[in-house]
Amino acid sequence: MCTQILSDHGAEVTKIEPPSGDETRTLGPPFDEEGDAAYFTAVNRGKRGMAMNLAHPEGRETLLHLLKDADVLVENFIPGTMQRWGLDFEDELKPRFPGLIYCSISGFGADGPLGGLPGYDAVLQAMCGIMSVNGDPSSGPTRMGIPIVDHLTGYSALTGILLALHHRDRTGCGQRVEATLFDTALSLLVPHAANWMYSDQVPGLLGSAHPNIAPYDKFQCQDGLVFLGILNDRQFAKFCSVMQLDELIDDPRFASNSARLQHRDELRSRIELVLSAWPRESVCSTLMRSGVPVGPVHTVLEAFSQPHAVHRGMQVKLEGYQGIGVPVRLSQTPGRPIGPPPRFGQHAREVLDEAGFDEGHINRLQETGVCP
């Protein structure tokens, strides 16, 4: 995810896989026409691809040769792997390439009680309390349906890389950037961690409700679910006026957000009774245009079929590839997907040739399995 975003915005990214290939290629079905899992295509577009056996001395020498012209190296091995290969940043890479930004992404970092252990998104959701606030009493703690820890760790790494590049522009010096799933998972606990720190009360399961705001939850309409996100008293008054619940405005139980939180069950019952008679589309259209935040609970298909999603270009279609659009817009240097994800080893000869390897050397690297 981190390097795909960089590619979307103009970076030349070379993805180096092990000789066995990136295991994400196998995480299907569904698969694309070339046999790669859709999951792999979601985070690898626009990159050039090659494979390299870094356990082989010649593989390491090949990587060092490629790093001569590199701005950034991103790796997500278990901590200690690069050191075992003689590719430690402080001892080996930094002296050779003082301007290199070295970004390490791992589960827990290299040291501490859990240092060096492998990490996976769902395991970190469990360990770091995310599951404990996701779900309701009937479901129990529940994994979020997206790899939110993986995703945000990619963005954290990206942020660190950009900060380090800015520092290098001013000083000429590279540095090591570290992002871990553990730190990222804990950072997601807003506002739950702050609530606990200031109240000593452990947050629990609220379903789709918010621990600090009411009404802020999903509600059943005549023909489907909507999510109502009322943040302040002004929005609550507008909601009550549109929904003909004016008697709630002057009710002291609902006069402020704090009061509404204390009486959220009674408030929910009153709102559900009214919304159950309204079609979902009418509720959303009427309330949103009155300044009350509300939205239909869509499926993935419905989400990407929205006219506004089409207007924003949030589904990309290239030859042989479909993907999610670029979520950030720059007025002077807008990003764009430049091509499909690489096939296994697709650009090895091209990358090695550009790096100055002669044809005989390239043939030997490929025939010996160093760069298959």
The tally of domains stands at: 2
- Report strand order across the widest sheet: 3-4-5
What class, by secondary structure content? alpha/beta
β-strand number? 10
| CATH secondary-structure class of the largest domain | Alpha Beta
Q: Which blocks of ≥5 consecutive residues have pLDDT under 50?
A: none
Oligomer class = single chain
Distance between the termini: 24 Å
Please state the average pLDDT score.
96
Protein name: Crotonobetainyl-CoA:carnitine CoA-transferase CaiB-like acyl-CoA transferase
Region (Disordered): 1-34
InterPro entries: CoA-transferase_III_domain (IPR050483), CoA-Trfase_fam_III (IPR003673), CoA-Trfase_III_dom3_sf (IPR044855), CoA-Trfase_III_dom_1_sf (IPR023606)
Keywords: Transferase
Please explain how this structure is put together.
This protein is α/β, with parallel strands linked by helices and 372 residues long. The chain has two domains: 2-189 and 343-367, Crotonobetainyl-coa:carnitine coa-transferase, domain 1 (Rossmann fold, 3-Layer(aba) Sandwich), CATH 3.40.50.10540; 216-297, formyl-coa transferase, domain 3 (2-Layer Sandwich). It has helices at 2-8, 38-41, 57-66, 81-84, 89-96, 121-127, 148-171, 181-187, 192-199, 233-242, 257-262, 264-275, 280-288, 300-305, 307-311, 348-354, 359-367, and strands spanning 14-17, 48-51, 72-75, 101-106, 176-180, 216-220, 225-229, 294-296, 315-318, 321-324. The protein is elongated, with a radius of gyration of 25 Å.
Describe how the helices and strands are arranged:
Blueprint lengths: L1 H7 L5 E4 L20 H4 L6 E4 L5 H10 L5 E4 L5 H4 L4 H8 L4 E6 L14 H7 L20 H24 L4 E5 H7 L4 H8 L16 E5 L4 E5 L3 H10 L14 H6 L1 H12 L4 H9 L5 E3 L3 H6 L1 H5 L3 E4 L2 E4 L23 H7 L4 H9 L5
Parallel strand pairs: 1-2, 3-4, 4-5
Antiparallel strand pairs: 6-7, 7-8, 9-10
Helix pairs in contact: 1-7, 7-8
